[in-house]
Write a structure and sequence with these properties.
With 113 residues, this protein is an all-beta fold. Helices cover 0% and strands 52% of the residues. It has no helices and eleven strands.
Amino acid sequence: VHLVESGGGLVHSGGSLTLSCAASGFTFRSEYMNWYRQVPGNDRELVAGISPNADITNYWPTVKGRATISRDNAKNTLYLQMNNLRSDDTAVYYCYVPYYNTWGQGTQVTVSS
């Protein structure tokens, strides 16, 4: 099981970013997937989750209305689009597959004010 995030970077406050997570080694279309984020010194917090066929999504309250989780099961790829980014969105973002308890290596998002 392997997860590789990409798409992080430096963005100005109010800007947008789309993160990707390429999955391999398991049947991606069958698994619930999550995005988490972590600020140094803090626990990882759930950002969003999506069901295998994308009919159910959920979001952490601090990002609800600004984030959209999606997936392309044909490409084995998970996405997280975030709009109206704020400085407190600065964190390392990870994708996670609960069934296999596997994390990606993370991608840094830095929002400058």
